[in-house]
Amino acid sequence: MCQNPNEQKINPSHFEGSTEEKQTAQEVDGGFAAYTQGMKFFDPHVHMTSRTTDDYQALADAGVVAIIEPAFWLGQPRTGLASFKDYFASLVGWERFRSSQFGIKHYCTIGLNSREANNEALAEEVMEILPLFLQKEGVVGVGEIGFDDQTAAEEKYYRAQLELAKEMGLPVQVHTPHRDKKKGTERSMAIALEHGLAPHMVVIDHNNEETVKSVLDQGFYAAFTIYPFTKMGNERMVEIVKHYGSERIMVNSAADWGISDPLAIPKTAALMKIKGISDADIQKVTYQNALDSFAQSGQINEQDFIHGLEIDQSLKFNGNTVLRGGQAPRVDKNSIFIR
Amino acid sequence: MKTAELIFKSIQRLADPAELNWLAGKIQADSKGLSLAFVMVPRHVSKTQVGNIPGWNWQNGTLDQLVRVYLLIHLAEKEDGKSRIETLFDTAEMNELVALYRALPVLPTPEIWLHRATDAVRSNMGPVFDAIAFGNPYPTTYFSELAWNQLVLKCIFNDKPIHLIEGLDERANQALANTLADFAHERWAAGRRVPSQVWRLIRNFQTDTKEQDIKRLVESTDPSDRKAAELVINNSPLEAWKVLEKEEKAY
What phi and psi, each to the nearest 5 degrees, are found at residue B154? Predict the structure, then answer.
């Protein structure tokens, strides 16, 4: 879809809204926050490692209270186990702390991603250290795993990690391939069922209009990634919710090092609101279903973030709040002065 | 009484039967089992506040931390205990790091963990830095002067309250006093300040600029700065500095 702002044609074929809705949507472009006042969001898929602190600030301002960061491919292949180990450790360490500074509760899923499953020698070593990380506090699932090129090696490690998830009673976050998506999605689900995983423990990610029906019919959670160009647009997303309702459907940003948008969820919520979707349905697809699916890990306590990040009592010392982890003072971005 | 026994008594007092039962099963494990148990603690043990433990310097910890420390003491006694604990450090999440650093002073041979302790001072994760810096006797006992000064300076740099550091006044030294004077000048040049209680660290030392610095404090609009000047000039005892023991913003 051409996203050139100079393109005069205002007719994305998938935009089924009324003339009135189109008008409103244009008016609020850039001012979406007015439509999401009081809403809280849970982004179950965002790669904050690849984002700046400005994004954390923006997420907090937009009402995102909790996020899940799946382990993924960093843009180029890792060549040794130590890189994986440090990456996993950063997901439960530094990134978690960075997030807490902005009052956002950070969880993660840990797994060997499909691309790097193709380096079998390294994959074997990674499999060895996965159980240690999967047991850690705040690790809410195995992810993101699944198929990319749909090779034999990808299948081997997808299966092995499904077994790990089953053994540990953890949800699974399944990445579905960009290419040959429909077949790859069906294959991912069939293999999960073959390994005896309950569909409600599996979140099938990156769905589109072509895959959603089968995913829901088989009892899996269906996640939609609102990501420019390559995945879903949020106008299409609104139509999906209109058609399929809000049961077991969730949206995420999957924001990463590519051209992506960490505010995808609040923006989609605003668009849903404008286009007449009920607040209850918006709440389910932008918060509750993500929470319910991954809380099956036993690692999410909504009380930790629903009222904003409470100060963890264990981080307090002599009642000294500076120990909450150094809440950064707010910087007024419009000020010309930098102090 | 040995620390491990003290800790276990507190655990017994606070834990419910299911938690105690879980721990009883794990404490017998081999080193691999103890390592995994350390990681799994929050899945089986609550974060109940511990409060103070008579006879041991442990303030404001939680039960899960206490159980982790207890497991670490046992792990450290195993033949491959050191390498297992090194792995725990390398793969730790934030709460694990806090427990590891709080455990250092009570492990069988604390001195072998010096490299880890100084790493914690370099950490940018607030809770990790705090775990080694505050209420922890490790730095004052084992840090070299250089490492000690780095700890105190980083604490001041990050606007954290230095009075929570154990051994703060006992380990004050000339090199630190010189560095702090330089640091205060930098802050002043930037239109900022240092917390008033920092001046307690130069009270027993002479620096090139001490006279001018105190004069500046005397003329400060900030009552805490004027108080600090008064305490230095009168050569007041340490107790008198208590009134300045607080968190202060640098600007």
Answer: -65, -35
Q: Are strands A172-175 and A249-252 parallel, antiparallel or unpaired?
A: unpaired
Statement: A37-298+306-324 belongs to CATH 3.20.20.140: yes
ipTM of the complex: 0.82
> Touching check for B126 and chain A: CB below 8 Å?
yes
Q: What angle do CA A27, A31, A33 make, to 5 degrees?
A: 130
Cα A278 to its chain centre, rounded Å, is 22
Where do the domains of chain B lie?
3-105, 173-244
| pLDDT 10s digits, A53-81 | 999 999 999 999 999 999 999 999 999 99
Q: Which residues pair with A142 in a beta bridge?
A: A110, A172
Chain B partners within 8 Å of A323 (Cβ):
126-127, 130, 134, 160
Domain ranges of chain A: 37-298+306-324
Closest listed residue to residue A323, CA positions, set B176, B161, B20: B161
Residue A106 bridge partners (DSSP) = A67
Are B100 and B35 a contacting pair, CB within 8 Å? no
Task: Report the predicted TM-score, pTM, of the whole model to 2 decimal places.
Answer: 0.85
Determine the residue of chain B that is closest to A135 in CA distance. Answer: B40
